[in-house]
């Protein structure tokens, strides 16, 4: 059995580190798969790669259900697909919809007695199955609602700021760098072969601890004199 931790961020301002820490704390041996900024695109190349290699008995851990999907219909369909393939799914913030919990709900059916009460017992079993499925659907629906609500609040906040005459976003030509970014750029300048150092890009990425996207972004900013 292989254990994977899938982490994803959907905006450039988010940090993936918290998801990684949470998964590694609960499952120290998990192989972490990181999905860089995906925006609103449904294209998730790292997930596609992981999906292709998953096999019966493997486990995938998510920090929350929203990291698997924020679309209720697609999320539930993916959950069912993976469950039928024998993949164990774990959601650290929603353990009540882990596949193990779902499996217990299905296997907890009341045995038939061969008497006239079987039609009642069958109805109870069908109700328990429907209840288990509904809990999964609700979790994905809630994740979808949260992202819709967040977008709406952001939109309303920007509109309010503009109406109040406030500057929204950075002024043209302005640039703000964190201490972490400044320190990382110093390391890149000092060690990257592109700037006279001795390390290639892969080695610099390991040295700085940056994601590939962030590393190449900083590298380009150095070239541009930012």
Report what the structure shows:
It is a single chain. This protein is elongated. The chain has helices at residues 17-26, 45-53, 65-68, 72-84, 99-107, 118-163, 179-191, 201-208, 212-224, and strands at 3-8, 31-35, 59-62, 88-91. A four-stranded parallel β-sheet has the order 2-1-3-4, sandwiched between helices. It is α/β, with parallel strands linked by helices and 226 residues long. Helices cover 55% and strands 8% of the residues. It has two domains: 1-166, Resolvase, N-terminal catalytic domain (Rossmann fold, 3-Layer(aba) Sandwich), CATH 3.40.50.1390; 179-224. The model has no long low-confidence stretch (mean pLDDT 79). α4 (72-84) crosses α6.
In DSSP terms (H or I, runs of 4 or more residues), the helix count works out at 9
Under the CATH scheme, the architecture of the largest domain is 3-Layer(aba) Sandwich
Relative strand content: 5-15%
* Average of pLDDT: 79
Rounded to the nearest angstrom, the distance between the terminal CA atoms is 47 Å
CATH superfamily assignment of the largest domain?
Resolvase, N-terminal catalytic domain
* Count of beta strands: 4
Helix content: 55-70%
Strand order of the largest sheet: 2-1-3-4
**Major beta sheet, specifics?**
4 strands, parallel
Shape: elongated
What's the alpha carbon Rg, rounded to whole Å? 23 Å
Secondary-structure element series: EHEHEHHEHHHHH
Number of domains: 2
Class of secondary structure makeup: alpha/beta
Q: Briefly, what CATH class of the largest domain? A: Alpha Beta
Which regions have little confidence, pLDDT < 50, spanning 5+ residues?
Answer: none
CATH topology of the largest domain: Rossmann fold
């Amino acid at each position: 059995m292989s254990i994977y931790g899938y982490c994803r961020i959907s905006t450039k301002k988010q940090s993936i580190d918290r998801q990684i820490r949470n998964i590694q704390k609960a499952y120290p041996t998990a192989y972490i798969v990181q999905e860089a900024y995906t925006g609103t695109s449904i294209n998730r190349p790292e997930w596609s790669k992981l999906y292709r290699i998953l096999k019966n008995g493997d486990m995938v851990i998510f920090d929350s259900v929203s990291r698997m999907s924020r679309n209720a219909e697609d999320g539930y369909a993916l959950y069912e697909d993976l469950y039928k393939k024998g993949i164990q799914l774990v959601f650290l913030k929603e353990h009540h919809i882990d596949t193990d919990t779902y499996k217990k709900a299905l296997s907890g059916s009341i045995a038939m007695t061969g008497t006239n009460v079987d039609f009642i017992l069958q109805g109870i079993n069908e109700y328990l199955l429907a209840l288990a499925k509904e809990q999964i659907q609700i979790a994905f629906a809630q994740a979808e609602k949260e992202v819709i609500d967040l977008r709406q609040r952001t939109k309303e906040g920007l509109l309010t700021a503009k109406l109040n005459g406030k500057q929204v976003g950075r002024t043209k030509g302005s640039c703000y760098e964190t201490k972490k970014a400044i320190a990382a750029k110093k390391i890149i300048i000092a060690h990257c072969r592109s700037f006279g150092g001795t390390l290639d890009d892969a080695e610099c990425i390991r040295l700085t601890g940056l994601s590939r996207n962030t590393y190449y972004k900083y590298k380009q900013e150095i070239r541009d004199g930012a």
